[in-house]
Amino acid sequence: MDQVVEMQPRNVADGASSVGVAADSFMALTFDLNGERFAISVKHVQEVIDPLEMTHVPNADPFAPGLINVRGAVVPVLNVQYRLGMEASAQTPDTRFVVIEAGSYDERTTFAIVADSVHEVLEVEPAQIHPAPALGLKWPSAFIHGIIQAADGMIIFLDTETIFQPATAL
Amino acid sequence: MMNPADTFRQEATDLLENLEENLLELEAAPTDRPKIDVVFRALHTIKGSGEMFGFSELAKFVHHLENAYELVRSGDAQVTQELIDISLGSRDHIAALLDAGQEEDIISQLVQSELHSTLLQRIAVLSGTGDTPAVPVAEGDAGDAASAAPMVEYTIYFKPEESALRNGMRPDLIASELAMLGECTSRVVTDMVPPLEEMDPSACYLAWELTLKSDAGREKIDDIFLFFDDGDIRVEEKAVAPPEPDAAQSAPATSDVPKAAEAAEPADAPASVEAAAPSAPKDTKPGGERRPEPVSKVESVRVQAHRLDELMDQLGELVIAQARLNGIAERLGDGALGSATEEIERLVTGMRDATLSIRMLPIAGVFGKFRRVVRDLATELGKDVSLTTEGGETELDKNIIDRLSDPLVHIIRNAVDHGIEDSETRIAAGKSAQATVSMIARQSGGEVHIEVRDDGGGLKTDIIRKRALERGLIEPDAEYSDEAIHQLIFAPGFSTAATISSVSGRGVGMDAVRNFIEDLRGAVEVKSETGHGTSVTLRLPLTLAIIDGLLVRIGQGDFVLPLASVEECVELSDEETQNDRHRSIINIRNELVPYLNLSEIFGFERRADALNRVVIVNAEGKRIGLMVDDVIGQHQTVIKSLSDYHRNVEGLAGCTILGDGSVALIVDPSALIKSFSNQFREAA
Questions:
Q1: Helix, strand or coil for residue B606?
Q2: Whole-structure pTM value
Q3: Which end of chain B has less Cβ packing within 10 Å, N or C?
Q4: Which CATH superfamily hosts domain B363-541?
């Protein structure tokens, strides 16, 4: 259960503002799925861990295939690829679980998503985010917040409000 | 730490709850002296400590009611229906005042409400004090004792503890209470005030010397200081003119009474934790559904519920860690480690049982509420209904008890509104005019059953069938047993009430009840006999937190079956498994038991080394087999609930963490059988 990257999002954010970053820029975690680069805001990211053995939940929604034990807490594993209509990829030495805590203060849920590899924590200026085009994207637009134009290419910025919603709430 | 005002609110809430129960008992037996005393004492305590903690409007109001009971106690008045009605109404009003706390606008709203004045008016009429309800608190007290005690001059020395102000003591209130007893002067003693640099601004360094000329009697003064057993209180008394001929009595009597209050009236002191509880049962008639408290005084401690929850969480972690330790000890095979591990296991099990038992409460507390519900409902609907309860001493986890009220209210309402006929119909049917609703609790294995039974007309099978047809819940030409029809009342949105009454019939009732009970991992059943009544039974687990489980392997995963529902494990021969998939029936000692193949249901690959074991469970009153790949053994299971992502998955009750750190799912046999019953109907 060794952790590769330990991240404390609040520290990252605080550090950023103290070195004089524009107030409304924010940090995003970038990761790869099937060769495409995606990003989510680090605000909700708790930690990135090595893959754990997952308990499969029978007859569950393929979006939430199983459960893992993250230091004593049972955490559902979400398959973002399924929701984006992508093929599931096989586990490689680069595969990581990203543990995310989302929701409002009194009703927070913790879950993990599987990434083919985790790339970096990136500082994003609001100006870098472009609205997702209505056409030409192969992913359901409800789950896409926008496209980040970064130095080394396009990053799909996921909408944390919708992409992690349980199927029953959609 | 809770602040004293909160402590008072909590204690007063408990007292009010008991008060309601006692009032209802008093209604049934109006001449029950001990009961009258209990009611009086409860009111007295609420008034006394209310005044103390700044709930002065509340105290004022209670005072009037207390006066009415004073008259009853002295034999000058009787317990009448009117008195009980007023008392119950007042009780609710007091509860509202209590809820308002220190919020001035809400309090003044309540005090100016019509209800407030009407209640006071009615109390005044009963107490014969005419139509002047706005009596200050102590006036009545002084009046009561006027004839008895002679005029005495008291010199009172009062030095509160240093921490008294921090604890919410209000010297000004005490002074004003004393002033109500008679002519009072006070002098502040500042000798003990330390130099500024040593002074703690929140501590009380002051003392008071009060002189009081009063004919109220010594007891009234002691009453005022009742709650200050920690301070230094000295009262000297000296009779004033006219001098009494009896020299012994008129001689200045000096007495130190630092702890006098405690010694004099221990049952009244709200500071003692179990103020009302132990005094009440003594006065209870045998056979009542009271808490099974021993007659001797039991020490009890008030603990906030969330602390118990924390303890339970910690214990859950401990159980998991202990399972991991077991695994390690087994692997290492070290004898000394093994015996130490066993010792720890034994201790953890003991601790688990002790912790769970702390959380167990008798169900009588829930039952108590319903006497009022039934009484009010019956009055509203013009029916004559009595409530009997049985098995109130049955214990259940606090978290379950807390969540039982709503579903039980639904069921009781249904029983009184729909089940019970009016008196004429009952007499015509040859039944007693007064209907009975019974609430019966009993423990049965790992479950508690709560049955609500009425002796009304029973479910109207034809109407339910008709309604179910309209809603497309049943097929028009299929045959259904009456029993099957009755279960339809639990279907979503089902309601047969011809008109929507204020009581029930909004179509949310039984469906909501079932969901509620299923959330508690329980089940609900209905039985009905036309003309003889309906019985609804809630089956609930003893606790929500930890269960004994049977660990089984299915496919690649480990699963836990609740041991409480497991009857036996059998092994299938290969020939038996060769049967047609849809005809899975196993012959156990000449009894044919249908079984479900769990790896098939769960869509798992069968393991090559699978053993074809069948665990026979008893669920929904039926014996049913669950075929698993292997039975591993017993397992103390800490139940963790499933997240929103998996809550709707059929047949699972939660999950747990095993000794090796992996996550195992807990199977809910009843839910599993229900959701796969179609497959079952074919099989059976």
A1: coil
A2: 0.53
A3: N
A4: Histidine kinase-like ATPase, C-terminal domain (3.30.565.10)
pLDDT for position A104? 56
Give dist(CA B24, CA B42) in Å, integer.
14
Q: Which residues in chain B come in under a pLDDT of 70? A: 1-2, 129-149, 226-230, 240-298, 445-446, 493-509, 543-545, 574-583, 620, 676-684
Summarize pLDDT for B561-619 with one digit per residue, the tens: 988 889 999 888 766 665 555 557 888 888 888 888 888 888 887 777 777 889 999 87
* Dihedral angle over CA of B659, B665, B670, B676, nearest 10: -140
pLDDT tens string B91-136: 888 888 888 877 888 888 888 888 888 888 888 887 776 444 443 4
List helix spans (H) across B471-605. Answer: 482-487, 509-519, 574-577, 598-601
CA B61 – CA B68 distance, rounded (Å): 12
Question: Which residue among B558, B652, B657 places its CB closest to the CB of A74?
Answer: B657
Structurally, what CATH architecture does the domain formed by B546-683 represent?
Beta Barrel (2.40)
Interface test with A, best of B600, B638, B662, B663 (most A CBs within 10 A): B663
Contact (CB<8Å) B643/A109: yes
**Under an 8 A CB cutoff, do B662 and A55 touch?**
yes
The encoded tokens of residue B413 equal 């309402």
Query: How would you label B272-308 residue by residue, b for 16+ Cβ within 10 Å and e otherwise?
Result: bebbbbbbbeebbeeeebbbebeeeeeeeeeeeeeee
Longest dimension (CA), chain A: 50
Q: Does B530 touch chain A (CB under 8 A)?
A: no
Q: Where are the alpha helices (DSSP H) in B132-257?
A: 137-146, 171-181, 218-224, 247-250
Q: 1.20.140, 1.10.20, 3.30.70, 1.10.12: which CATH number matches B152-263?
A: 3.30.70
**Is the separation of the CB atoms in B664 and B559 below 8 Å?**
yes
Topology of the domain covering B4-126: Four Helix Bundle (Hemerythrin (Met), subunit A) (1.20.120)
Chain B interface, mutation test: which of A56, A70, A74, A104, most B Cβ atoms within 10 Å? A74
**Mutation target among A50, A55, A61 for the B interface, most CBs of B within 10 A:** A55
Radius of gyration of chain A (CA): 16
The ranges assigned to domains in chain B are: 4-126, 152-263, 305-361, 363-541, 546-683
Residue of A59, A64, A72 lying closest to B657 (CB–CB): A72
8 Å CB contact of B650 and A72: no
Those residues whose C-beta lies under 8 Å from the C-beta of residue B389, and which sit 6 or more positions away, are: B289, B364, B367, B370, B438, B439, B440
Alpha helices of A34-128 — where are they, by DSSP H? 80-83
